[in-house]
Amino acid sequence: MSSAVAMEATRRRQRLSSNGGVSETTEEPAGQWGRAWEVDWFSLSAVILLLCTAPFLVFFFVMVCDQYQCSVSQPLVELYSGEATLLSIWEKAPSFTWTAAQIYTVWVSFQVVLYMCVPDITHKFLPGYAGGVQDGARTPAGLINKYEINGLQSWIITHALWYANAQYFHWFSPTIIFDNWIPLLWCTNILGYVVSTFAFVKAYLFPTNAEDCKFTGNVFYNYMMGIEFNPRIGKWFDFKLFFNGRPGIVAWTLINLSYAAKQQELYGYVTNSMILVNVLQAIYVLDFFWNEAWYLKTIDICHDHFGWYLGWGDCVWLPFLYTLQGLYLVYNPVQLPTTHAAAVLLLGLVGYYVFRSTNHQKDLFRRTEGKCSVWGKKPTFIECAYRSGDGGLHHSKLMTSGFWGVARHLNYTGDLMGSLAYCAACGFGHIHPYFYIVYMTILLVHRCVRDEHRCSSKYGKDWKRYTDAVPYRLLPGIF
Ligand code: NDP
């Protein structure tokens, strides 16, 4: 559609009002979508700071368990008093090993094979599960990519093999991940940097879709936040889907199982805290794979470009820092009183319910274009318009009822409740396992602000109408 025709269509378009009625409008869509970010000094400083510090932060949180029983303050005290030096700490930490390299190579290759060579069959017999070939969201250039959704199947095959090994085959010890943890950190870093650098160079030399590339003019920002939107090799190897979901998230539950096995080996029992962490995080991971098709419509896939933030983050940050609670519990086996354990379980389950229901409501609403029931009623919404990079005019709806009428990001609030539950499962002996809730709060608040900035430039005045109707972001009455 030419832009003149598109403008005319906008003038004439009919707009559904927030109560579902129909009204005429002459307003133009105020916003343009995508590629609107500018690199200010604050963003650039944050990018450089993260590039320089994040790998050491991950090393620090893993090393303090290995050398200081997970005490975060002890190494700082020793450094201050001169008892330890940065070099002595570094030298005591296990280094790269070829055993770890072999384990990691087998792991990543196996996940690539499952991703590329085993088309999904689970959707044929699991009622309600959306697997197989699915459409992604429209990219800024107006494309809709296809994805092979087989993450749940990969997760099931991988865990079935893990179980078969632990019970029958005994090819390797179930503690293998824990036993090679710091050497594996080296291997994941190598892959994280190789993938991010490859994606960066690829964007200049052979981008998958040049029109979806975003060059900001700043090399650090481009490297970190990515240039290509959906880098692919061939038709199906999608970097974002593969690295976001596997090998990191499939590994998450295996890492936790390896920690539980280590507790059993060291102490002869597994604590209730370890079981809680394993169960709550497994629910989260399984939820992710059950809803992998839905995940194609989330910010990571829909809006973020693929750079170091996703490439290195998925290879290193996620498997090492999202599993800190289990690691902590290997070194500090906390047995919780029943009331404490019950409170953690309740917080985790309520958080999960809010997280899942909020995401489900939006998904249902968008899939049915508002023709559905939310909390027993027809949802209310605000009709919006926006333009893609090719000038095309599109319409969308922002729901103003259900959880989305209570606050603009209750899915994040539920996620944070769940995250707090994982941390609280570790008791109150050390702050080490609480790093996760601090990090998740920063991540999701920042994500909320970033998303709202993007939505505001995408929808213009329509976004303002939405924020007037739903004034709070995460906590009604507070934020
Ligand atoms: P959302 O699923 O909240 O998606 C935000 C997008 O939804 C907006 O950009 C907008 O997209 C659309 N939208 C916003 N408001 C409305 C509304 N009222 N009605 C309909 N659509 C609306 O965010 P994420 O993709 O960030 O998160 C998805 C889930 O993943 C969350 O539950 C989050 O907690 C979780 N998550 C977990 C992480 C982790 O590390 N554990 C990291 C990141 C996310 P549009 O342009 O289409 O209008």
Automatic annotation (TrEMBL):
Q: Which GO terms describe its cellular component?
A: endoplasmic reticulum membrane
Catalytically driven reaction(s) = cholesterol + NADP(+) = 7-dehydrocholesterol + NADPH + H(+); 7-dehydrodesmosterol + NADPH + H(+) = desmosterol + NADP(+)
Region (Disordered), start-end ranges: 1-29
The compartments listed are: Endoplasmic reticulum membrane
Q: Which UniProt keywords apply?
A: Cholesterol biosynthesis, Cholesterol metabolism, Endoplasmic reticulum, Lipid biosynthesis, Lipid metabolism, Membrane, NADP, Oxidoreductase, Steroid biosynthesis, Steroid metabolism, Sterol biosynthesis, Sterol metabolism, Transmembrane, Transmembrane helix
Pathway, according to UniProt?
Steroid biosynthesis; cholesterol biosynthesis
Per the record, the domain of life is: Eukaryota
| TM helices/strands, residue ranges | 41-64, 266-286, 306-331, 337-355
Query: Coiled coil located at which positions?
Result: none
Mind telling me which Pfam families this protein's record contains? ERG4_ERG24 (PF01222)
Q: Name one GO molecular function term.
A: 7-dehydrocholesterol reductase activity
Listed Gene3D superfamilies: 1.20.120.1630
Q: Which GO terms describe its biological process?
A: brassinosteroid biosynthetic process; cholesterol biosynthetic process
Q: How does it sit in the membrane?
A: Multi-pass membrane protein
E.C. number(s) listed in UniProt: 1.3.1.21
PROSITE patterns of this UniProt entry? STEROL_REDUCT_1, STEROL_REDUCT_2
Q: Which InterPro entries match?
A: ERG24_DHCR-like, Sterol_reductase_CS
Protein task:
Catalyzes the last step of the cholesterol synthesis pathway, which transforms cholesta-5,7-dien-3beta-ol (7-dehydrocholesterol,7-DHC) into cholesterol by reducing the C7-C8 double bond of its sterol core. Can also metabolize cholesta-5,7,24-trien-3beta-ol (7-dehydrodemosterol, 7-DHD) to desmosterol, which is then metabolized by the Delta(24)-sterol reductase (DHCR24) to cholesterol.
**Which family does the record claim for this protein?**
Belongs to the ERG4/ERG24 family.
- Report the protein name in the record: 7-dehydrocholesterol reductase
What's the source species for this entry? Oncorhynchus kisutch
Gene from which the chain derives: DHCR7
